[in-house]
Amino acid sequence: MRISYLTLSLLLVGQMSFAQYNPEKPDLCQGKFFTKEDAKNLHDDFAKRYSDKNSWQKHAQEIRQGILDGADLSNYEFKKPTNISIHSKKTLNGYSVENVSFQSIEGIYVTGNLYRPVDSNGLPPKRKTAGILCPHGHGPNPRFAAYTQQRCASLARMGAVVFAYDMIGFGDSKQSDHKIEKALKLQIINSKSALDFLLDLPKIDKNRIGITGESGGGTQTFLLAAIDDRIKVSLPVVMVSGYFFGGCTCESGMPIHKRPSHQTSNVEIAATFAPKPLLLISDGGDWTVNTPEMEYPYIKNIYSFFGAENKVENVHLANEKHDYGPSKRQAAYSFLAKYLKLDIQKVMVDGKIDESTNKVLSQTELQVFDEKHLLPANAVMGDAEVMALLEKK
């Protein structure tokens, strides 16, 4: 049985205990939109829409198109990054770090740090390397934070080229506030541009491309993985939930979940990645608390349509909270090493992950724009100006 959009809308509007309906924005699913119990019931109904590979693929395509339509991107022409700047190279123990900016839309600059593997002489690998995007979540200076640097440095030491990039309004990306109305649209554009940047670097193996981020970066992870087939391994951390849709405009501020033709959830969006390798990392201290009982089995059932149940995994840390801490990173390293053919032994000491030789750099060392490297003169500044640009595009 297929729930009609009208029936579902009436259900959501009519039962205030069932959904946190916002009369000012009836087309949005935001924050803790459902109770945990109601999310389970609704997904049971969702599952009736597909029972095999063909019916799921048809619905998955509907979801992908719904993301593009809802994010005002259905007619958008994604272009390769321009005005690329890579500077301030620092060669460390088994990896190097550089500061990067490039233009995703004329007047909008993506900013971040590029981590690359090097040998004992500071030289890059001779063979092709895997590439990994590392979007970050919300928090104080997340791109500069030790946990982000540790993740990127370790993955680079394992043999991957890694790009950590700013959310809008964070780090060096200060052309607008983070919570502009179309933040979701701009961050998808920036993520696509970041992927183009990564793929166009020398000696990148286009068949070994991964993405992993936590919280809001987890949202960016499963959204980009859903709409861009060039991503081969997806690892959203502490984010995929059946009842929580993201509490920020950059995650749920545009109507990508409720469409005239269907309603979906972040669980289904993550599942559109089937049958490619997907790892859900969850914990007991946030909205991923039920992942082992609800979200993971649901997605695994979809993977079974492809005979690929072994390609989706869940690492649940019941005693941990909402972060991308050491044990979560260890799980990520193992999964990424397995599917991107990385050498995890390069970060192991006595059978355990050892991040102690990674150097945590200062914000000054990692920042993209400074007295020697200025924000380009054509950069659009201010919320109204950035929004006007997005309206045009």
Question: Would you kindly provide a written description of the structure presented here, covering whatever features stand out?
Answer:
- By secondary structure, this protein is α/β, with parallel strands linked by helices.
- The chain folds into two domains: 120 residues, no CATH class; 233 residues, Rossmann fold (3-Layer(aba) Sandwich), CATH 3.40.50.
- 33% of the residues lie in helices and 19% in strands.
- The protein is built from twelve helices and eleven strands.
- The strands form two sheets. The protein has a nine-stranded mixed sheet with strand order 1-2-3-5-4-6-7-8-9, with helices on both faces. Strands 10-11 form a two-stranded antiparallel ribbon.
- The longest helix has 18 residues.
- The N terminus is likely disordered.
Q: Residue ranges: pLDDT <50 for 5 or more in a row? A: 1-19
* Tally of individual helices: 12
CATH names the topology of the largest domain as Rossmann fold
Principal-axis shape = globular
What labels describe this entry?
single chain, 393 residues, alpha/beta, 9-stranded mixed beta sheet, two-stranded antiparallel sheet, 11 strands, disordered N terminus
SSE topology:
Elements: H1 5-14, H2 36-46, H3 53-70, E1 82-91, E2 95-105, E3 108-117, E4 129-135, H4 146-157, E5 160-165, H5 183-199, E6 204-214, H6 216-227, E7 233-237, H7 249-252, H8 266-271, E8 278-283, H9 295-304, E9 312-317, H10 326-340, E10 348-349, E11 352-353, H11 363-366, H12 383-392
Parallel strand pairs: 4-5, 4-6, 6-7, 7-8, 8-9
Antiparallel strand pairs: 1-2, 2-3, 3-5, 10-11
